[in-house]
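[step 3/7] inverse_fold.run input=structure_tokens len=677
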């Protein structure tokens, strides 16, 4: 028995009523918007609103509230009215999206690590009197500028007499009266504590500590000989020797008498030469050190030796440009260190040569720094030196070399992506050659940031991150390439930036790799991706007569922004279209459905198909991007078969009109359900 015929035969009156009701619901549900309202007064990204459309009778047709995307946290769906129509656009919040609205920009600042002790006053993002601590402006007050925190939590400000405990993030007071305090050496003044601490090489000495007075720190015995004229020291008895004391002798005893880590002539407390009229003469022969002596005594321990025995040439150490490897110009500085233990360096005691040949004896005064001109050309250049003391001893063995490189390096800078998408990383690829001194570095600078390519480390590129802004702009940059000699090659160029998907736009020229959709925002012109899956074998979707089976429509959004995709059903013959429907749709919308997808996300949408009449059909599912209007479709062969009571396919005729009436009945029932997607 045909169950459908049996049911209709017994319930023909009810079926008639439901059929009429279905037709009534079908046509009564077709409503047109007559007015629209928006609680936040239009497109306001930082205010959450609800937008509602009404028909001419004041009945609500649709109502939506602004909401944040679950897939993309910073993306806002903003609903608004356009005349009597309800519209929606997506907007990427510059900060973050919270509870249906963009969060206003927070009061933040650039964080300075506490170890750098940022100065008081206005900092990036902070007003005067505030200190930037862990990206927060703290009211530290005068003298409290040391930011103290651990892992970015609970920032605090320390006093000038406090240090930051890096373990707890707390400010700790330092007891400067207790040298055993673990932080004593960090901030305390220990120059007068009479303790050898904090890296001192001697008590209270060195560094910034004030030294004592070397030649008044005490006395030292000096022997003075008196007695019979023309007698030698060996002729005198001990009782004929008188001991007197000379403070100045402490500057020549080789002892650090005032504990300032400086000895004798290295100590600024000592005079550079003995006072006029003083003679330091240990053996009493009249020859010694000082203007009061008869002459210089090279051996003051033996009174029989008083002649000038200085045969040692002075010592000299010479470097060019403080021992640099390279010079980029002919004019250099000769750095000299010289010494002579006996007679001292002559007033005009220095001579220099570029080739080692001193053909003219032109002596000049010695100094710690001498300006000199190299002979050139580029390559290794050597300077030779002579130095002599007051006794005529000459040292002519000193020389130093430096590589002269006066040519700028050859470099080329390329922006790897030009134009580049907005708020992306811009890579600058730099090639550099310098045959003499070699390439050192290239500094790329634009108006917002800079980066450095370290050629000595083998780097070939560096990256600058663009600000998080939707922009179409030309950036001008400077590339300063330096070789190891200090020569600079400066080049100037530019690159373009265009807007990424989702950015506001007016024309497509502003967009990076897509088009400006509706003079609203940039989007790629790629269509949605669609496929159809079903259970069974082969390429044909079989449905028993009078049964409903479900297909799965695999739908993917290939865009980098959220998209709304409209699904539509078509059939050949057209009957198959009316036998197909999406779950939860009203009757009038049963063959259409709008699905919202995040960037590059996908979803499976079920589609129910009823076998209304035996035959072969072609079912087409079309997916249209609401963002860029691009379409894609997928066809599937549908075969409606008749199955007898034993499960075998037969050629029994299909439902025909009865099947169609059954579909109308199902549509009437479905029209009462609300849209679920």
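[step 3/7] decode complete -> sequence:
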């Amino acid at each position: 028995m045909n169950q459908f015929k049996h049911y209709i035969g017994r319930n023909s009156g009810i079926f008639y009523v439901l059929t009429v009701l279905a037709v009534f619901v079908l046509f009564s549900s077709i409503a047109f918007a007559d007015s629209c309202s928006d609680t936040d007064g239009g497109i306001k990204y930082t205010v959450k609103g609800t937008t509602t459309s009404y028909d001419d009778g004041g009945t609500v047709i649709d109502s939506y509230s602004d909401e944040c995307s679950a897939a993309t946290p910073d993306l806002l769906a903003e609903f608004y009215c356009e005349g009597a129509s309800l519209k929606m656009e997506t907007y990427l919040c510059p900060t973050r999206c919270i509870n249906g609205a963009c969060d206003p920009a927070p009061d933040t600042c650039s964080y300075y690590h506490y170890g750098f002790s940022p100065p008081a006053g206005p900092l990036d993002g902070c007003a005067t009197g505030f200190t930037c601590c862990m990206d927060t402006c703290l009211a530290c007050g005068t003298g409290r500028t040391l930011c103290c925190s651990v892992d970015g939590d609970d920032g605090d400000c320390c006093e000038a007499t406090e240090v930051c405990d890096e373990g707890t993030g707390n400010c700790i007071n330092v007891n400067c009266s207790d040298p055993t305090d673990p932080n004593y050496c960090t901030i305390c003044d220990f120059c007068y504590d009479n303790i050898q601490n904090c890296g001192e090489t001697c008590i209270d000495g060195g560094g910034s500590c004030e030294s004592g007075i070397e030649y008044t720190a005490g006395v030292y015995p000096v022997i003075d000989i008196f007695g019979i004229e023309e007698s030698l020291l060996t002729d005198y008895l001990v009782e004929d020797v008188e001991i007197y004391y000379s403070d100045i002798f402490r500057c020549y005893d080789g002892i650090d008498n005032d504990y300032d880590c400086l000895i004798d002539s290295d100590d600024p407390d000592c005079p550079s030469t003995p006072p006029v009229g003083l003679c330091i003469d240990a053996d009493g022969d009249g020859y010694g050190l000082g203007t009061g002596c008869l002459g210089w005594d090279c051996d003051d321990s033996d009174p029989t030796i008083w002649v000038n025995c200085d045969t040692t040439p002075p010592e000299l150490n010479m470097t060019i440009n403080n021992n640099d490897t390279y010079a980029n110009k002919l004019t250099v500085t000769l750095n000299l260190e010289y010494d002579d233990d006996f007679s001292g360096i002559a007033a005009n005691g220095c001579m220099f040569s570029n080739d080692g040949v001193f053909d003219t004896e032109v002596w000049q005064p010695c100094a710690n720094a001498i300006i000199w001109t190299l002979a050139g050309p580029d390559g290794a250049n050597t300077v030779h030196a002579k130095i002599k003391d007051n006794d005529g001893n000459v040292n002519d063995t000193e020389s130093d070399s430096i590589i002269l490189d006066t040519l700028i390096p050859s470099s080329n800078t390329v922006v790897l992506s030009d134009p580049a998408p907005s708020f992306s990383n811009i890579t600058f690829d730099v090639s550099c050659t310098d045959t003499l001194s070699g390439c050192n570095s290239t500094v790329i600078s634009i108006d917002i940031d800079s980066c450095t390519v370290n050629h000595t480390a083998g780097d070939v590129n560096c990256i600058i991150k663009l600000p998080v802004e939707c922009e179409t702009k030309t950036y001008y940059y400077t590339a300063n390439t330096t070789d190891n000699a200090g020569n600079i090659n400066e080049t100037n160029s530019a690159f373009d930036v265009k807007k990424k998907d989702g950015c506001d736009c007016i024309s497509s020229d502003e967009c990076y790799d897509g088009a400006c959709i509706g003079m609203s925002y940039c989007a790629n012109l790629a269509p949605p991706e669609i496929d159809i899956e079903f259970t069974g074998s082969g390429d044909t979707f079989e449905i028993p007569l009078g049964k409903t089976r479900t297909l799965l429509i695999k739908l993917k959004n290939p865009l980098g922004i959220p998209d709304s995709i409209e699904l539509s059903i078509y059939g050949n013959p057209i009957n198959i279209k009316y036998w197909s429907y999406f779950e939860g749709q009203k009757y009038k919308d049963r063959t259409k459905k709008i699905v919202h997808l995040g960037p590059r996300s996908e979803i499976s949408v079920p589609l129910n198909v009823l076998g209304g009449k035996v035959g072969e059909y072609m079912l087409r599912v079309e997916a249209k991007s609401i963002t860029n209007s691009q379409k894609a479709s997928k066809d599937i062969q549908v075969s409606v078969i008749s199955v007898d009571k034993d499960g075998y396919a037969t050629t029994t005729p299909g439902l025909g009109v009865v099947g169609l009436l059954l579909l109308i009945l199902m549509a009437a029932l479905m029209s009462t359900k609300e849209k679920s997607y």
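[step 4/7] annotate
The first strand starts at residue 35 and ends at 38.
Residues 12-28 form the longest helix (17 residues).
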